[in-house]
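Bug #2210: token dump truncated for Sugar phosphate isomerase/epimerase?
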Amino acid sequence: MEHLVLSGFADEIAPVFDKQLEAVTQLGLTHIELRAADGVNVSDFTPEKVKEVKGKLAAAGVGVSSIGSPIGKIGIGDDFAPHLEKLKRTLEIQKELGAPYLRMFSFYLPQGEDPALYREEVLDRTGRMVEEAKAWNSVLLHENEKGIYGDNAPRCKDLLDQFYGPHYQGVFDFANFVQVGQETLPAYEMLKPYLAYVHVKDALFADGSVVPPGQGDGHVKEILSDLIAGGYKGFLSLEPHLTDFMGLAALEQDPQKRGSALDGKSAWKLALDSLKDILRDIPQAKEAL
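Reproduced locally. Full output below:
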């Protein structure tokens, strides 16, 4: 890409896709990270739903920055064969919707067990997914997520060292690192060469609660300043997580009650305004405002 583009998970605004598109266009965004529409996860879209969503996106003038898929968000001991088939269908959906990326994960591990015990199985499964992405000429983006193999920086780097290339790259999620006790500054330095995408979400070490960007312990401003000053051109995708929203329980193993009085659109606007405040102090980021 030639410039910075703001995007985000519009299903946190409202489950109804029409309302998502109405809100993001009112907020001035040209892209969304598509995770769910009308209560249906993108990986479960029927051909008819894909056609409907594609038409509505075109009519609204909104593109898809990435498919916010749940691929890789199963237990490492779960049957992988049907999941690989789900990936194939989701890659097809990605292509139909013109998204450049597909977000994915590296499998939930049994709590309290040494992740090293499952490394070979994680690598085997990930390798098979990367091969499938190659067949579709697609790009998988690995997201650091709580409870999966790649939840901290060293294990994210392990995966990226093995598979980084045109079909497997990295997402940096500030809040998810904070919530597993991983300091974000050393994580960023370790993973910077592999990053192709950023999830803008902040959190507090004290209790793991998600807060507006720049108000937590994720060092969002410092990291974005360095990344953008270093020439990063790509998507900054908001994942506000500032209020309860439909589908939250399906996204997290231990979803927290947000306790916010904000509705989805207001919470989204708060996160967007907080990100814009950060970007105003970064000279190279003016284009995204």
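Output looks complete on our side. The CA atoms of residues 155 and 250 lie 24 Å apart. Marking as cannot-reproduce; reopen if the truncation happens again.
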